Structures are given as C-alpha cells and as structure tokens.
Amino acid sequence: MAHATDKGKYFKDSTECRITLKEIFCGITNPVLQIYEAVGRMFPDHSVSLAREFQYDYSQAVIRIHEKGRSVPVHKDNVKYEGREYDVSSIDHQLSCVLHLQESESGGDLVLYNRSWKKDDEQFRNIDFGYSRNLTESSQSYRAPNLEAGDLVIINPIYYHEVTRIIGDVPRITLGMFLGFYSQKRKIVAWA
Ligand SMILES: O=C(O)CCC(=O)C(=O)O
C-alpha cells in the first residue's frame, strides 16, 4: 500500500494493477488465486478473499523487481498503524506472503529479526523508508535459506525484516501481498 495517504489514487492504481496482472498471467493460472487456495488449505475454517472497501477492490499483489545493487532496509509492516484510513486496518492480525518468481545470482536474502515493532521505535525511522540498523543490531536474526522460484514465504511482518543487496545481473523478482485476519469472523482478506 504505497499510497497510504491518497486513497483515491490507491484504488485507481489498484484497478490498473489488476488489469496488468491479468495480462502478465494470461494463459496460466493466476498465482494470486493459487496463493488464496494455499492459504485456505492452511486455515480451513477461514474464508479467503480479496479485501474490498465500499465497492472498491484493493490491489491484488505487488510485483517487485529488485535489480543489482538494490536492497530493502530493515522495516516492519503494520496496516493497523500505517494504514489507519483504510478498512483493512481493523484486522486482528497481519501476515505477509511473498511468492518468489526469480532469484538473483547472489544476495537478495530475506533476513528476519527477533524484534517486533514498538511505537517508541518510530524515533529510529528513516526519512524515506525503513529504520536505522541500530534498532536490530543486537537482535537475533534468521536468514531464509536457499529460496527458489516457486517458494512461498509467509512472515509476521510486525517483526523487523530486510532484503540484502542484490549481487549479479539477474534481478530478484517476487509477488507480494498481505493477509489480514478477522479472528471472530474467521475471515482472511488479502491486499497489497
Ligand atoms: O521480498 C521479501 O522477501 C520481503 C518483502 C517484504 O519486505 C515485505 O513483504 O514486507
């Protein structure tokens, strides 16, 4: 949800994104639907659907192409805090789902830190995106091993995480979405 402060633009871009994803996955099963099915099998007593607000669909997924030299700084995702103007901020719990479409030659590792976000951490926030490395330097970390195209990684995004610098000419390509859980309704909504 890159346009957290401009809902009109977010929902307009979501419509265009839906058309683009349809074109990209024309002729094959849309991986977004495959992820919904996989999540449905993990949580058989929950329904799984795309998030909607009034008559608007949220964006289905974001495709990230990380080229050589790119990295994603230490950050967390928490729609209850960052997306308060969106209906999905009323969820009880959030997970992040990343389908790997192409790995880089080297680097591009997902590193998870054993430290969850607290409001006080906002003082360590970078101006543009992410947080100061000081925040996680003394936390235990876990590097997701040997990920391959086709792997689906599900994390609790309130724990700090980062993607290390991409090395080599082959870009790292992923398709990402968030899952929001409404515990009482046993309902999971997906958005990006
Ligand atoms: O690309 C990844 O492995 C992690 C993506 C990420 O940072 C996120 O979903 O918040």
Walk me through what this model shows.
With 192 residues, the chain is of the alpha+beta class. It has one domain (7-191): q2cbj1_9rhob like domain (Jelly Rolls, Sandwich). The protein has 3 helices and 14 strands. The protein has helices at residues 7-24, 31-42, 79-82, and strands spanning 47-50, 52-53, 56-57, 62-66, 72-75, 93-102, 106-107, 110-116, 141-143, 152-155, 159-163, 166-167, 172-182, 187-191. A hairpin with a 4-residue loop joins strand 13 (172-182) and strand 14 (187-191). It is globular. The N and C termini lie close together (6 Å). 25% of the residues are buried. The site of 2-oxoglutaric acid has 11 residues, from strand 6, strand 11 and strand 13.
Which features does this protein show?
binds 2-oxoglutaric acid; 14 strands; 6-stranded mixed β-sheet; alpha+beta; 192 residues; 4-stranded antiparallel β-sheet; Jelly Rolls; 18% helix
